[in-house]
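Mods, move this if it's the wrong board.
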Amino acid sequence: HITFHEETQVLVVQAGAIVPLVGLLNEGDIEVRRNAAGALWNISRHAENRQLVAQAGAIAPLVGLLVHDDVDVRRTAAGALASIADRAENQVLVAQAGAIVPLVGLLGDSDVEVRRIAAVALWNIARHAENQVLAAEAGAIGPLVGLLGDGDVDVRRNAAGALRKLAVNAENQVLVMQAGAIAPLVRLLGDNDVEVRQNAASTLLNVARNAQNKVLVAQAGAIPRLVKLLADIDVVVRRKASGTLMSISGTAQNQALVAQASGGIPLLVGLLSDSDEEARRNALGALRNIVEHAQYQEMMVQAGAIAPLVLLLVDGHVEVRQYAASTLMHIALVAENQVLVAQARAIAPLVGLLSDANVNVRQNAAGALANIANNPENQLLVAQAGAIRPLVTLLSDSNVNVRQKATVALMNIAGHAENKVLAALADAIGPLVGLLGDGDAILRRKAAGTLASLSIRAQNQMCALPAAAIHPLVGLLSDSDVEVRQHAAD
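Not the wrong board. Structure tokens:
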């Protein structure tokens, strides 16, 4: 009883109680063992004491008590081990002492508190990667799935938490699915307890990392419930729900289901301005997956996606910049949206991203600018924002996709008469001539097209066709690609 209070736990430890208490775990009297285990449980609630209890040799005798006939002994022993395993260094020690198999057995105990504590203990133990495999091999997944429907909220919470950790392992993701976990996890997304919702969403997030499970999670009716959780008052719930939607929207079928779910796109757009960094990133990832479908681009625009996407172009996380630029690139495929994106002041930050250290960011920024510059009104704006010189630099990028996007952007920008001169002055002609011999047909086509556009302007004709350009242009007249031949002739 003394050790129940935190302030006295330290005093008891300082008095040297741990070692004799460990010795009492092997006493013949049931009540002595029960009280000794209970005292060690209380003492190990204090973070600093967990290692001391483990070092005193408590783990092995506590594991032995997990199979005791007395329910209170089982409960206190499991509780002590759960607390000890809350420290990373002890998780392997508890597993090595043989705790996993008896703890799995306790998941079916008739006492609700024993089930509750056994699930917590396995949750803590499974935070170590090796133990995730051992727990699955010990048959933990099936009983834990069964406890998802337990009448006790703490049992449901802890079982979902344990499955959450087990499903970090790729092989366990399949086993959790095969054990029938998806349907009850989906039901728990609507649980009244916030921590149950957190753990259910987190477990589904891990399970859905498996490609087959993405489809199964959607088929189990998870998407409408996950969409609803995007507006949950709890930030962890929003974070995990959006993360799961980002994961499962990686398949074409699920992209439609997410977009068509009531409130799906507006709620995801709303999360782009969430105070939580991870929630913003997850929502952006989901929108990035959905935006590839033309019919949903307009829904995003109507939901007000452009403004927050522009703000995310300068985010400190490379993945956010990459996805924001990519989403705007797809939105700007629609003519009406090209004006809206420009009006939202996206051009300047996109130009800045042309020099980003990340190749995907550079590619998406160049692609977005290329689409924006399809609109004649935007061509001069893009040039005035300083896009031409960094785009010319990207013509020599090591990545073929970056070179393609930069070439297209320059070709579109050069549609404006003033920009033809600016492009020539920025030394675009030399790199474009170099691309005429590129192995990529798209690059040859766009490079020849851009040169053709530049050479239309009288001031550029002498520059656009230096002697080095004649031979490759003549060679392109016999190119297998009809557009390449056409542009070379122009």
